[in-house]
């Protein structure tokens, strides 16, 4: 009797665990972006992997989505070589309606500046770049802090 009762209890707990929304392992569906959501584009120099520079920017993109929810719509393009192809991809993101574009590679600095001239209403963030424009800002890591 106890074996049957214990077996049924384990089965009931397992069913509750997998079927209960509160205990489910799957993430809730992402709400659709609002009509006036900020569209943000990210351009990655390599594919997204488990670690590294691009991975950290991907984590930042996901954090923005988590914090702002339907008020933001993010897109990314990975494995974009520096140079002419970067300009094409950045331009594509601007033409597709991105209002803010992150270009986290030093080699994207010049292509970002070129595209920014043609899209004054779009804001650009050149990570590791040093040149700015009215709609291009720069950012960089605080490498010196690693010394402490």
Task: Kindly describe this structure.
This protein has 148 residues and is an alpha/beta fold. It has 4 helices and 5 strands. Strands 2-1-3-4-5 form a 5-stranded parallel β-sheet, sandwiched between helices. Helix 3 packs parallel to helix 4. The N terminus is likely disordered.
Quick summary:
This protein is of the alpha/beta class. Helices cover 38% and strands 17% of the residues. The protein has a five-stranded parallel sheet with strand order 2-1-3-4-5, sandwiched between helices.
> Uncertain segments of ≥5 residues (pLDDT<50)?
1-25
Number of strands: 5
Mean pLDDT: 81
- Using the alpha-carbon principal axes, give the shape: globular
By helix and strand content, what is the structural category? alpha/beta
Strand count, sense and closure of the main sheet?
Answer: 5 strands, parallel
Rg over C-alpha atoms, rounded to the nearest angstrom = 22 Å
Compute the number of helices: 4
Strand order of the largest sheet: 2-1-3-4-5
The percent range for strand residues is: 15-25%
What string, H for helix and E for strand, traces the elements in order?
A: HEHEHEHEE
């Amino acid at each position: 009797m106890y074996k049957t009762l214990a077996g049924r209890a384990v089965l009931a707990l397992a069913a509750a665990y997998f079927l209960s929304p509160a205990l489910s392992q799957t993430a809730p569906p992402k709400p659709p972006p609002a009509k006036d959501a900020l569209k943000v584009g990210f351009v990655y120099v390599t594919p997204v992997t488990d670690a590294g520079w691009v991975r950290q920017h991907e984590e930042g993109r996901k954090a923005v989505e988590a914090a702002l929810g339907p008020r933001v719509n993010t897109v990314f393009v990975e494995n974009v070589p520096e140079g002419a192809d970067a300009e094409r991809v950045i331009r594509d993101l601007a033409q597709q309606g991105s209002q803010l574009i992150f270009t986290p590679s030093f080699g994207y600095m010049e292509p970002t500046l070129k595209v920014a001239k043609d899209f004054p209403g779009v804001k650009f963030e050149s990570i590791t770049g040093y040149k700015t424009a009215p709609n291009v800002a720069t950012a960089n890591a605080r490498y010196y802090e690693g010394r402490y």
